[in-house]
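FW: tagging you since you asked about this chain on Friday. Here's the raw sequence from the shared folder, copied in full. Didn't touch anything.
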Amino acid sequence: MSGIQTNIKAKAHVYGDHIDTDRIIPGKYTKTLDMSTLANHVLEDLDPNFNKIVKQGDILVAGINFGCGSSREQAPLALKQAGVSVVIAQDFARIFFRNAINIGLPVLELANHKIDKGAELDVDLKTGIVKDLTGGVTYTATKLPDIMINILNEGGLVNYLTKNGSYSL
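HL: got it, structure written out here
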């Protein structure tokens, strides 16, 4: 079992609305299987310094419709490889949400948040509680169903299905 960290305390990198998969990882980098290439170019068109400032375990926070655009699985993979431990957004494009869970990247929907760039967050994935330690506010995100927590705990959907005998490589 890969196991995810269900309690995450880290710095928030905050961005806006409608961040599409081309902004997360530009299409010209999606033809590689080298995960470090994806990590090195994640969000470069939105924030050219992101790959230099993100630290392992940091949290990405966004507004509405995060991950819209194409269905490319490389978008959540690039974020995960760059060290992002969880993505919090007001809402997600459904295909991005599923791709993130499928590859083992936790995502939480948190409506009407007022989280500022650089805030220190304490996130409990099991309960959906997000504490903004800098701003002194506690939010309740949409709780992930237990099946999704189980998939994340196994490191993604393929590992989960393999472990449970529903899939073999």
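FW: The two ends are 17 Å apart (CA to CA).
HL: agreed, and The mean pLDDT is 93.
FW: great, closing this out.
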